[in-house]
Amino acid sequence: MRIHNLYTDAKGESHFRDIEVEWAEETRAGKLSKRLPATGIIFRQVQPTYDLDWHPAPRRQYIINLDAGVRITASDGEARVIGAGEIILVEDTTGKGHLSKAVDGKMRHCIFVPVD
After folding, report:
1. What CATH number is associated with residue 105?
2. Which of 55, 89, 95, 104 has its CB 3.0 to 4.6 Å from that of 8, i.e. a possible disulfide?
3. So what's the pLDDT on residue 116?
4. Tell me: the pLDDT tens digits for 6-20?
5. Total structural domains within the chain
6. β-pairing, 2-8 with 98-102?
7. Residue 65: beta bridge partners?
8. Going by DSSP bridges, is the β-strand pair 87-90/2-8 parallel, antiparallel, or unpaired?
9. Looking at 1-116, which runs of residues are DSSP E strands?
């Protein structure tokens, strides 16, 4: 399972990398990762016209898109569409941040899981 990761380097530029979930246990019901820290859950609805200029993430958090995607552009110029069912860990809480824009003109429902 891949998690997109948006992070900031020492110069304040944001970049993408991929994180692979490590499986800690396999049961008859499926594979499980180890338990990861989290400090809550936030539900969000985003309008299909969402188009946010440069901004850093407000906190380290996982974002889980439920039914639509978002195009995120890192300050190094790389853009990714994080689709429905995909997960991103945003850690660019300092520096220039990133751009966020709705895709396909759809309302998006997502879940934020803060990790700080």
Report:
1. 2.60.120.10
2. 95
3. 80
4. 999 999 999 999 999
5. 1
6. unpaired
7. 110
8. parallel
9. 2-8, 14-20, 23-27, 30-33, 42-46, 51-55, 61-65, 70-74, 79-82, 87-90, 98-102, 108-114
Whole domain around residue 50: which residue ranges? Answer: 2-114
The Cβ of residue 66 has, within 10 Å, a number of other Cβ atoms equal to: 13
- In angstroms, the CA 101 to CA 73 distance is 9
Closest CA to 69 of 58, 59, 79: 79
Token pair in block for residue 39: 């400090």
Alpha carbon of residue 15 to chain centroid: 12
Give residue for tokens 């906190």.
Answer: 59
**Are 12 and 70 a contacting pair, CB within 8 Å?**
no
Nearest to 50 by CA among 110, 107, 112: 107
d(CA 116, CA 108) in angstroms, rounded, equals: 24
Give tens-digit pLDDT for 29-63: 999 999 999 999 999 999 999 999 999 999 999 99
CB 36 within 8 A of CB 79: no
